[in-house]
Design goal:
globular; 5-stranded mixed barrel; about 450 residues; binds iron/sulfur cluster; alpha/beta
């Protein structure tokens, strides 16, 4: 029997890139290729790259170099591939280069350099595809690209204008994921709140029901649908859905108000801000109106021309808004970004110093906010269990971005279990907890692995 062709895979970058990787790996498996866990066991290697900021570009170029050195036959895809000929100039020996979201082009390149096996094993591929995330959570990409033109960002030139997936297709994928054991769906895209704008919010069908391609309708459909097990208590314990537009929510209840409050700002209003990115002033309002949602946002420190007074205004804003999760980049002059032409570029040290100051302030705010959860009983989805304790996340915590909840007496819990825990300790990022007294001592099945 002919040997099964093996492909190695390196996936870098954001969750959007990870979803592209999952699509490619799924297709490779569907066509009968094996995925090799090592360079030397692979017949060729696909590297999915990131090109967002300079450090990410360098990491991607290094990864390509390593794959070339260890294996020699490399296909490059992802955002860095869309940046002119930077990949080919640095690594002329790569077999092929594509941009992001280019499944067909990647597969064409793979077929050219490593013909697919005669007998495809399509039947062996589960309907939810091959996921690169743990079994209990998955990313659900609802659109690609972005209609905004933030001057610091080159994503629209890499990924194009907004292109939303039809809502029926999104819901069918969500359904397959949940049937495959996923308990947490992470709704992602470049501009989640703009979902459906390009489709003119067109109607699609799911389960025979009409649904509009609109973020609010999608959120309602994801929040209200029953898994089909027949139990009336099923929905609250089975799934979480979280969105990059407005943090996490548990279903039910689902806050429609939070959805409408985050829908795209008037495009004209963007013109008043030099970064051309609106909406940020909505956060304090949201935080005040909806005490039980979690808000995450990311900021840039040291944008060209930013004065000390303007930066302090940002710090004041953070003090006022008390956002739960905050990330901060120092301004990075990504080649091709319009903001690089602006006067008043700040020295690296100033940008870094401001980033550090912002993060130190946010640590204090975060510690303050997490302290408010002491003594509360919260629901946690377990990610890992080791050395007599478990680590999970509440509805407020996105994987690999936010803090975690340590469960000190969670020895019996397994990844994918739900647990009710009482918060006993906190720091600036994480919570510590013990199993809720009413549940302690019950059998593990109580926590709902089903
Ligand atoms: S909203 Fe702005 S920062 Fe985000 S992808 Fe679109 S252009 Fe880039």
């Amino acid at each position: 029997m002919a040997a099964v062709p093996k492909v190695g895979f390196v996936s870098l970058g954001c969750p959007k890139a990870l979803v592209d990787s999952e699509g490619i790996v799924t297709r490779l498996r569907a066509e009968g290729y094996a995925i090799s866990p090592s360079y030397d066991g692979a017949d060729l290697v696909v590297v999915n790259t990131c090109g967002f900021i300079e450090s990410a570009m360098q990491e991607s170029l290094d990864a390509i170099g390593e794959a070339l050195e260890e294996n020699g036959r490399v296909i490059v895809t992802g955002c860095l591939g869309a940046k002119g000929d930077v990949v080919r100039r640095t690594h002329p020996k790569v077999l092929a280069v594509t941009g992001p979201h280019a499944l067909e082009q990647v597969m064409t390149a793979v077929h050219e350099h490593l013909p697919k096996p005669h007998e495809p094993f399509a039947d062996l591929v589960p309907p939810q595809g091959i996921k690169l995330t743990p079994r209990h959570y998955a990313y659900l990409k609802i659109s690609e690209g972005c209609n905004h033109r933030c001057t610091f960002c080159i994503i629209p030139s890499l990924r194009g204008d907004l292109a939303s997936r039809p809502i029926g297709e999104v819901m069918r994928e969500a359904e397959n994921l949940v049937k495959g054991g996923v308990k947490e769906l992470l709704v992602i895209s470049q501009d989640t709140s703009a979902y459906g704008v390009d489709l003119k919010y067109g109607t699609g069908f799911w389960g025979g029901r009409p649904l509009k391609a609109r973020m609010g309708d999608l959120a309602t459909a994801l929040g209200n649908w029953a898994c089909g097990c027949g139990s009336t208590t099923c929905i609250p314990i089975r799934r979480w859905t979280r969105s990059s537009a407005y943090g996490g929510w548990e279903n039910p209840p689902l806050h429609r108000r939070s959805v409408s409050a985050c829908e795209p700002a008037d495009p004209e209003a963007d013109e008043t801000s030099c970064e051309r990115r609106g909406q940020s002033r909505a956060h304090p309002r949201l935080a005040q109106n909806l005490s039980d949602i979690t808000i995450r946002s990311t900021f840039i420190a040291g944008f060209p021309g930013e004065t000390e007074d303007e930066f302090r205004e940002l710090l004041d804003f953070l003090e006022e808004a008390e956002l739960d999760r905050v990330g901060c980049f120092s301004y990075s002059p990504v080649p091709g970004a319009k903001a690089n032409e602006f006067p008043g570029a700040l020295p690296d040290e100033v940008r870094e110093e401001r980033r550090g100051r912002l993060m130190r302030l946010q640590e204090k705010i975060s510690a303050r906010r997490l302290k408010r959860r002491l003594g509360k009983t919260i629901k946690v989805l377990v990610d890992e269990s080791k050395a007599g304790r478990a680590v999970g996340r509440s509805a407020a915590d996105a994987p690999e971005i936010d803090g975690v909840v340590h469960i000190e007496d969670g020895a019996k819990l397994k990844p994918g279990d739900w647990a009710q825990v009482k918060v006993t300790r906190s720091d600036a990022h994480d919570l510590w907890s013990e199993l809720d007294v009413q549940q302690r001592g019950r059998q593990r099945s109580t926590y709902g692995t089903a």
